[in-house]
């Protein structure tokens, strides 16, 4: 009489082992990630083409527009003495700029929006007539003279920073008090790389203060941003665009949105703005 016993083979042990199950799970996970990676690459490619379409339209129509100011800017300089570690003294001329902000600032923007097509992409663009009016208080120049600055009042400017000046479609006049001037290209400050427009100010306008008013027709793409530079700033905006997205640090106090467009009003008081009426900056 004879008998035999069978024992599990090596393959059965391998399949039943936790390590084998872990490897199979890892392989399946990698296989499932391949279509997700392909989808991600396609989405990233489409987003890249979309950004390219927006950039190309922006170059021809006008890019995203951001307005800063207006400011009253006064160049000034003083002699500074510096002593190094060896006790050697050197003197040099320090050049800075006094930047004064308006007491009141009212901005109105009537925005006409539409979509331009670039390939398969629709790019939202707009043209707007921006109206500014406000008032500057008399400039307190003594605070700078106390710091031994010599003010170059003959080089003072009324300056508005515009992120893409190529979108400006018309040269406009500026009403300063009872005088009418025309905007000039650039911010009017030597060494300043920001883009914008400016006019020259007189010493009398600095010491007496002045009211101002002007209109600026501008083209732009996607976004339209304004800085609340006044001690009291009010912004009223209307548009035919039915899908607005309100950005920035201050949401509208009032808004009306319908299929025909929207209306929005903002009021930013001095304390909420978190900055003073004057500051000093270098180039």
Oligomer: single chain
Tell the overall outline: extended
User: Given the structure, what is the number of helices?
Assistant: 5
Helical percentage: 10-25%
Low-confidence regions: none
Number of beta-strand segments: 16
Structure description:
The protein is built from 5 helices and 16 strands. It has 283 residues and is of the alpha+beta class. The strands form 2 sheets. Strands 1, 2, 5, 6, 9, 10, 12 and 16 form an 8-stranded mixed sheet that branches. An 8-stranded mixed sheet has the order 8-7-11-4-3-13-15-14. It is extended and about 100 Å long. It starts with 9 loop residues before the first helix and ends with a strand.
Give the SSE map.
Layout: H1 10-16, H2 18-61, E1 65-83, E2 89-100, E3 104-118, E4 121-136, H3 142-145, E5 150-151, E6 157-162, E7 173-176, E8 179-182, E9 184-185, E10 196-200, H4 203-208, E11 210-221, E12 224-226, E13 232-239, E14 254-258, E15 261-268, H5 270-273, E16 278-281
Parallel strand pairs: 1-12, 3-13
Antiparallel strand pairs: 1-2, 1-5, 1-6, 2-16, 3-4, 4-11, 6-10, 7-8, 7-11, 9-10, 13-15, 14-15
């Amino acid at each position: 009489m004879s008998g035999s016993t069978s024992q599990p083979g090596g393959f059965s042990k391998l399949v039943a082992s936790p390590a084998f199950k872990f490897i199979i799970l890892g392989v399946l996970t990698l296989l499932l990630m391949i279509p997700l990676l392909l989808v991600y690459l396609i989405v990233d490619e489409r987003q890249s083409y979309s950004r390219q379409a927006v950039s190309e339209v922006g170059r021809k129509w006008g890019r995203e527009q951001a307005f800063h100011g207006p400011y009253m800017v006064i160049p000034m300089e003083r002699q500074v003495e510096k002593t190094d570690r060896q006790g050697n003294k050197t003197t040099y001329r320090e050049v800075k700029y006094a930047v004064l902000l308006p007491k009141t600032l009212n901005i109105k923007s009537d925005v006409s929006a539409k979509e331009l097509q670039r390939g398969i992409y629709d790019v939202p663009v707009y043209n707007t007539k921006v109206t500014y009016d406000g008032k500057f208080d008399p400039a307190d120049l003594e605070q700078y003279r106390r710091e031994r600055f010599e003010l170059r009042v003959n080089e003072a400017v009324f300056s508005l920073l515009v992120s893409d000046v190529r979108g400006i479609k018309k040269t406009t006049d500026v009403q300063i008090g009872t005088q009418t001037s025309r905007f000039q290209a650039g911010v009017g400050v030597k060494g300043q790389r920001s883009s914008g427009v400016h006019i020259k100010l007189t010493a009398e306008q600095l010491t007496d203060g002045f009211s101002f008013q002007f209109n600026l027709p501008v083209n732009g793409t996607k976004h339209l941003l304004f800085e609340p530079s006044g001690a009291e700033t009010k912004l009223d905006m209307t548009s035919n665009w039915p899908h607005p997205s309100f950005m920035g640090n201050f949401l509208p106090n009032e808004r009306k949105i319908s299929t025909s467009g929207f209306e929005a009003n903002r009021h930013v008081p001095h304390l909420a703005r978190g900055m003073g009426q004057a500051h000093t900056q270098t180039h």
